[in-house]
Write a structure and sequence with these properties.
Layout: E1 11-12, E2 18-19, H1 25-31, H2 39-51, H3 59-65, H4 70-79, H5 84-102, H6 107-113, H7 119-130, H8 134-141
Antiparallel strand pairs: 1-2
Helix pairs in contact: 2-5, 6-7
């Protein structure tokens, strides 16, 4: 249901040059929009949103916030065709772009705010989402803030 789109290996810009998988800032913003979901998926996103920047975002904590067991939460998400990892990834991607560009946070600070175990884990996830490292992304798009 919710998946971050894979980038095309090459995109041709308005001048006819190939940009190996780099999209425009607007395209990244569209990709990073939070999904429109209902039911327990919506409740999970709301609970995750409340924790961004100051509390752990592990499934155990979210299940506790929703007064559910971890397994019940997983089962209910599965019934909706969603998974906790997908929802958390969507939220993290959304906030990562905001934190890097709008809030000018350091890569380490973003990693911590989004509850990654370390900077490398955040960098790997960000590369999976954008094909760019957080530092390169910031250098390319810092003028959009």
């Amino acid at each position: 249901m919710i998946q971050l789109q894979r980038l095309n290996p090459q995109i041709i810009d308005e001048d006819g040059f190939a940009r190996s998988g780099i999209r425009s800032y607007h395209e990244y913003i569209v990709l990073a929009k939070l999904p429109q979901v209902d039911g327990v998926s919506d409740r999970v996103l709301q609970a995750l949103q409340k924790r961004v920047g100051h509390a752990p975002m592990a499934i155990e904590h979210i299940a506790q916030d929703l007064n559910l067991s971890k397994r019940t939460l997983q089962r209910r998400l599965q019934q909706q065709g969603a998974s906790f990892a997908q929802l958390r990834d969507s939220l993290r991607f959304h906030h990562a772009i905001k934190f890097l560009i709008d809030d000018h946070m350091s890569v380490d600070a973003v990693s911590t705010a989004l509850d990654f175990s370390d900077r490398t884990s955040f960098t790997n996830a960000f590369k999976r989402w954008t094909n760019l490292s957080p530092s390169v992304f910031r250098k390319l798009f810092r003028d959009y803030a």
